[in-house]
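A sample follows:
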Amino acid sequence: MRTSFTGIEIARRALQAQQRSLDIVGHNVANANTPGYSRQVAVHTSSQPYPIPQFTHNPSVGMVGTGVEIGQITRMRDQFVEMRLRQENHNLGYWQTLKDGLTQVELIFNEPSEHGIHQALNKFWDSLSELSRNPESDANRTVVLQTAEALAESIRHVRSQLGKQRDNMNTIAEIKVSEINTIAQQIADLNKQISKVVVAGYQANDLLDKRDELLQQLSQITNIEVVESESQQITVSISGATLVDRTRTYALETAKNFDLGYERVEVIWQGSNAPVHVTSGELYGVLVFRDGTDNFPGVQGYI
């Protein structure tokens, strides 16, 4: 005969499962504005049944259910979407960096204005025109000298500011390399924590969210490829060269090159001096803006 305690136990388990589900909902609401947080969902499963006691063995009777329990807590995260976001972050970081750099160049030239190179050049040509009409005039000769000096000073000022902008690009490259190393170490630390949680048989949802957020940040700085193992450990590489291998990192560094007649920061792998093949992201934007002939060097060479 079935006891009344079975029904009470089923009700208790149902209440407990629903209470934990409400706790998860509260956790979702509390983290609504947390960057990188993924909504979590409790997956309900039937709890372990037990066979009905019989005086005679009758396998057709079956087993009695014991209620409901939470089987696991899953993240509502699409890995394909995550991969696409990282790819678009590469492009966003690259084009945003170029835009910011060219905006600074535009401010340096300050055109059109009353004090730019264009205006100084117009005044110089006008003074030459006046001198051609009256070449014996000392006043016209003085004006030509003054406008020529003003034009030369305008050009020197722009070249000086462009040189400072080039040096600033070197500084930004060093900052981006430092950011890459910092994020890589944080990802390796999270890999270690996630491994411990997974081995213990739990879901490392919040830790996985933090790691995914770091991957998004890293993908905006440089191009990365991410491979995840069955144990939820990841390997991160840049153009095929490993940056993070589970709990181990391979750092980047910068080296100064003066072969072109000025200080030029290059990005290399620490300890090997091998160049880092960056193909997208903010760091690539910095290097292309500084070195690409269609961008900064072309403008500076024109001046």
The chain has a mean pLDDT of 87. The first strand starts at residue 40 and ends at 46.
